[in-house]
């Protein structure tokens, strides 16, 4: 039986079409993954644990020195970061809408030592003014490294605040992962009635969803 040799042009065309289909599939999966990550997720696992973990974390209301925390304002919890324009945009938008923005002073153990030390001091003071000052001058560390006396607090106490920050981050990360997301800033946590919602790296639609949930009927 004679062996049929496929024409080179036909062979190349098949390869091009196959490669194009593969790239389209990869791109489609990437878009779906991004949308799933950005979209709000209803907390179905460890709902009570999330509320407890947030309340037990070091946090502070994001207010300027001359501002007061709004009374009975809807609460938006925020995991933020230094040099995070998206975080700052979310903070400003939420405050304009009359929300109480509660910033979580938590950081993973893998963070740089200087960052861990700064967050430990912010966890100790729990002050929006201190946080804003740190953010405005990130090259100036608020405290000395963990293990060195900071102001009127000894090294053991400051290390304790660092551990509080780390343990709180890990509790939030476990609940977030159990509900199909990986914790990273910016991350939003809020309630719709008795339901908890999470949005990691939220897009504009996710923020609008939080706004609708928190301001409905107000």
Characterize the structure shown.
The protein has 218 residues and is of the alpha+beta class. It contains 7 helices and 6 strands. The N terminus is likely disordered.
Question: What are the salient characteristics of this protein?
Answer:
disordered N terminus; alpha+beta; six-stranded mixed sheet; Glutaredoxin
Secondary structure blueprint with pairings:
Layout: H1 8-38, E1 41-42, H2 47-56, E2 59-61, E3 75-79, H3 85-96, E4 100-104, H4 113-125, H5 128-136, H6 155-178, E5 187-192, E6 195-200, H7 204-215
Helix pairs in contact: 2-6, 4-6
Shape: globular
Give the CATH topology. Glutaredoxin
Which range best describes the helical content: under 10%, 10-25%, 25-40%, 40-55%, 55-70% or over 70%?
Answer: 40-55%
Structural class: alpha+beta
CATH architectural group: 3-Layer(aba) Sandwich
What Rg do the Cα atoms give?
23 Å
Task: Identify the CATH homologous superfamily.
Answer: Glutaredoxin
Low-pLDDT residue intervals, each spanning 5 or more residues: 1-6, 19-36, 143-149
Number of strands: 6
The gist of it:
The chain has 218 residues and is an alpha+beta fold. It has 7 helices and 6 strands, in the order αβαββαβαααββα.
